[in-house]
Specification:
Strand order of the largest sheet: 2-3-1-4
Strand content: 5-15%
Number of helices: 31
Length: 679
Amino acid sequence: MSHSRERELAWLEEAVVPGSVVAIVGPPGMGTSWLARTFAARRRAAGAMVPDIFDGAGALAGVVVRLRDGDRPASGAAWLLATPAPIVGASADLVLGPLSESEAARVFVEGAELQWPRDRSVGDRIARTLGREPWAIVAAAQLAKSAGLSALEKRLSDSAAHFLDAMREALGAHQDALAPDEREVLLWAAAARGPVTFDILESAVDEARVPDVLAAVLALLGRGLLRRGSRHGVVWFAPTWAVAEVMRSTAGDLAHRRAGVRAAWAERARELASLAYGPDASRVLTELGVAIPDAEAWVIEEPSAAAAGLFVGLTDAIFFDGAQEDPSAPFAGGRSPAFAAAVACADATQDDLLAARTRCAASRARLEEGEPDVALDLADAARQRSTSTDDASLLGECERRRGWALMALGRAAEAAEAFEAARTLAESTSDLRGEADALAGGGMLALLAGDPGKAEGALRSSLAIHEVAQDAPRAAAVRGMMELLPTRGAPTEEELSARRTSLQADLTRARAGGVRMREALALAKLALLSRAHGATDDAARLEAEARVALRLVGPAVSPQLPEYGAASEGARSYRLGPQAETLTLPDGPTHSLTRHGALKRVLWALALRHRERPGVPYSMTELVEAGWPGEKMKHEAASLRVYTTIRRLRKLGLESVLLTRDDGYLLDPVAEFVIEMAH
C-alpha cells in the first residue's frame, strides 16, 4: 500500500537497534504489518541491519512464549512485532494512531482493487460506478481513519448499494448548505467534462457574481465537494463523480457554462503553445492534458473549427498522456474517436491549415492503432493541403508523419526521403523539435534496415537536441528507442531482471490496446534480454514473434536485432598528446587542438576519466567546470556550450567512441586511448 507513516518510520529507525524487541501496536487494518514490512525493506535497501519480523497469530504466539522464557534476539539482531495489542517483554511499543484522511483515502483506492480478495466485486463496483476518483473516497476515509480498514471492509462488503445511497444523502445535505458563490463555482467546475485548473475557473466564472474564486474553491475543498490533484507543478480541481452528476442535472444553463469553460481552455492552450517544447514541456503537457476530456467531448458533441483546433492543439498532450509517470510507454493516448471528428470539422470549414493539422494528428493516431496504410493516406492528404498554406513547419510535420507510416509499411527508401525532407525543412525554420523527430525516425529506419552504427548516430543526435532543450518527455521517448541499440559491455543481472519486468508490462499494454508496432518493439527488446541471459531458444522465439507482429502491421523489413556486449570491431587506438594538444585517430590523421582551449580541456578530462574510471560518465556540470574553469554562466548557456563542444569532438573523428548516457558523456570503455603525459 502507498499510504505513508513517515513519522512512525523515523521513530522505528531510532528504536530498532541490536538486541531490541519493538512492537508496532494497532487494531486490525491500521497498517501494522505494512509498516513492519516497509521498514524492513528500507533497511535492506540501505544495507543496514534488518530485523526479524513476527506477524500473524501463530508467529506472535510463538514469540510471546519465547519472551516469557527469557529468550531474546541473537547478538546483532532485533525483533519487530506487528501486533493488535501490547506484548509484555518488548523493549518499546509504537502505538499507531488513526490514519490521516489523505492516507485513508489512498488506502481506500488501493483497497478497492487489492485488499479485499473475499469480495473484490464490491470494491470493483464502487470504483467503476464512481469513476475511480469517487465521492466514496471522502466517506471511506472518514470511516477508515477512525475504525481501521477491517471495519471498512466489513461495511463495504455488507452492501455496496446501501453504502452509495448513504453517500448520496450526505451529498444532498452538503448541497443545501452551499453559499451562493460556492454553488456558482461548483456549477462551473461540474460543467467541464474533466478537471479544470484554477486559471480556467477564474477565467470562466463571472467576477461580478464571485469576486473571490479562490476562497470559494478552498471552501469546496474543505467540504469535500471538490477534489484537488497535482503533477509537474500543475494543480487541477474537479468535483467528485456524484457531485458532478447532481450539479449538472440541476444546472439550467449547462450548455452556456460548458461553452464558457471550453472557450477558456482554447485561449489557455494558445498561451501555452510556445512553451510546449523545452524545459517547461512536462508542466505544459500536464496542464494541456487536463483539457483532453473536454476537448474530446466538444469536437464530437458540438463540431466546430474552435473545437477541432483545441483538440488538435492537444495532440502532444494526448500522445504523451501517462508517459510522464511511465517514460517507458510514450504516446499512450492515440485511440480517441475524436481524431476523425476533428478531420470532419476541418473539412466543413474549408480551412487548409486546420485540415492539414487535423490529418497529421489523425495519421499519428492511426499508426499507433496499427493501421499504417490509413496513416499514410492521411499524411499524404495533409501534405497536399499544407502546400497551399506556405507553412514550412507544417509541411515538415507532414513529411515526418509520412516517414513513420512508410517505415511501418516497409517502404524504406521512401521513408528515408521523407525523413530527410522533414529534417531539411526543420533546419530551414530552426525547428529543433522537428529536426529531433526527423533524426529519430531516420535512426529507427536505419536500425530496422540493419545499420546500428548509423542508427546510433541519428538517435544520439536526436536525444542531444531534446536534452539541450531540457525536454524530458521527448528525451525519454528517444531513450526508449535507443534501448534496441547494441550495448558495449553486458548489463548486470539486476539490470536485466528489472528491464524484463518493465518490458513485460509494455508488452501487455501494447497487446491490450492492439498497438502492433509497440508490441513488436517490446518483443524485440525482450529477445535481446533473453540473448543476454544466454536463453537462445527464448530469444529466437521472441524474435520470431516480433517479426510476426511487424508483418501484421505491414512492414516487409525485419528488425536486425543486435547483441548485448558486442565487442567493437578491431582495436581502436587513439593517441592524445600532452594536455590534448593533439589528437591522432586510429587511421592516421592528426588534429592540432592548440588553439581550441575549451575543446582540448574537455577532451583531456574525458580521456583521464577513461583511463582512471572507465565506464563512469562526466556529468554536464563537471564538463562545464573542466572546459570553462571558474567561468559563471546560466545553465542553458552552459548546456549549449557542452553540446556544441561534444559535437565538434565527434566531427574530429570520435563519433563512434564519444558516448552519451543519461547522466553525462564518456569515452567508450572498449576503445583504446594512449595518453602522453608532459615531462
